[in-house]
Amino acid sequence: xxxxxxxxxxxxxxxxxxxxxxxxxxxxxxxxxxxxxxxxxxxxxxxxxxxxxxxxxxxxxxxxxxxxxxxxxxxxxxxxxxxxxxxxxxxxxxxxxxxxxxxxxxxxxxxxxxxxxxxxxxxxxxxxxxxxxxxxxxxxxxxxxxxxxxxxxxxxxxxxxxxxxxxxxxxxxxxxxxxxxxxxxxxxxxxxxxxxxxxxxxxxxxxxxxxxxxxxxxxxxxxxxxxxxxxxxxxxxxxxxxxxxxxxxxxxxxxxxxxxxxxxxxxxxxxxxxxxxxxxxxxxxxxxxxxxxxxxxxxxxxxxxxxxxxxxxxxxxxxxxxxxxxxxxxxxxxxxxxxxxxxxxxxxxxxxxxxxxxxxxxxxxxxxxxxxxxxxxxxxxxxxxxxxxxxxxxxxxxxxxxxxxxxxxxxxxxxxxxxxxxxxxxxxx
Length: 429
Known about the structure:
Elements: H1 2-10, H2 14-38, E1 54-60, E2 66-71, E3 77-85, E4 88-94, E5 104-108, E6 116-119, E7 122-126, E8 131-135, E9 149-152, E10 166-168, E11 173-178, E12 205-210, E13 222-226, E14 231-237, E15 242-247, H3 253-256, H4 263-268, E16 272-277, E17 288-291, E18 296-299, E19 320-322, E20 328-333, E21 347-351, E22 354-355, E23 360-361, E24 364-367, E25 369-370, E26 373-374, E27 379-382, E28 401-406, E29 412-416, E30 422-427
């Protein structure tokens, strides 16, 4: 900078250099203010369809690939990014004057990932290979963003279904989902399944670690549950004292086995599902899948099935099933008091994809629970994030719900990882 000024002075052009600097700084300031305004509104709230009495507010937009998020007791939003933005992977968003508009943001953490939760005075966040934590103060504000503690590292990451979402129980146990990079544990280049599926030794399940122990590796964990291809949504339910997860189903039935499955069946099977897990449970992947039309566990064709032969006698049944390929990417049991009584202790699910059967998707669903068990059919709670008619699409998808969080006042927060928006859904009496 000094050399530029010196050179300009020698050429009597200092005033032009200074003018240029002023203009540059002004432009930068205007650009920053413009990006800040983007936090206020991206999609008209009326575009998101919710039940009568509920209102939708857009808190932020253009954040990047926001996956999961958590809300502190003072209302701060921590959102995890699956792609770095300005070299960082976690967003802190704060409404300093509580007027419903985000007016302070901070990026930190130099790693991508999905999972993020507050637990016992710490903010935990996952990369695709491990879990870190940051100390919080009494208001659950982060103290040091630059020096996270390493809780777990060295988890399997082959670049596909590699998210590491997690949950905590009330005994300082950390439950981490490790998805499989192989759709049905096939021998590479074939339609034949591995017998046994060696992937299950390090993926395709939930592993339990100590939430308070630093510098753990994969071998320090124990396999809590197995037979789960990819669980992106995880939630420890304190009322049932059990772990609930949303499982993504396998695909490519017709691709490898056209003698047993039609293209339509490939589009509409298998079911996506919620499972309630206890230690030692096996959901059956890759040896079986759940056929929601037959309401049966069916032996996978890679392992001798023909679309009709049942299997998985020892595998647990799903708690709730959904249409195929909807991509349930987060799960939240509602414990607040803002929403009407029917929603309390029920489950919200964020769907990242769409169903060829229903011609619906990119939505938040609700599953009613009574006495800790599903009661009645699941229903669409918040819809039209896609922004287009999925029956006759007229353009690209606008938003893909991915993460859910409950605010301290009982509001429901939804984020999307396509355009990086965060929505707040509240109930007005």
